[in-house]
Model the fold of this input.
Amino acid sequence: MTTSPTSATNKPGDRRICVDGPDGPVTVNVEVIEQRIAAGLRPVIDGCRIDPAEVARVTAGLVGDAEALLPVAEARYKDRGGQVTMGLDSLRRRLAYHRPDPRLYPLNAALCAADLARSCRTLLNLVTKPVDPHRVVLTTW
Done:
């Protein structure tokens, strides 16, 4: 299977791409995912209140993004092996973990959201960048 991003932009400012997934084409809204990643990586300032509803919303969105991007990345890099395959396997297991409740543990939930955001950023790069067999893939899991 070959995975090659193609432009499917419909509106100005709407950055959607279509990539080949394991079960057919998958449309990825890059702009929305990047916004959720930025929200997940927003710094937590000491002494400021953390909004549990916002953390829960961002975390749910990031989990959905990771679940959508993960099969595409796995199909695209299945023959590469090494650290990429181990990172994808690790992320798949972590998506099944129980995450902290933002109402009870807001700081822990915010840290979990930041971890998911970094993983989504890596997945988005793996899915949207052209595959070059000579390029070393550096990942942050």
User: Anything to note?
Assistant: The radius of gyration is 16 Å.
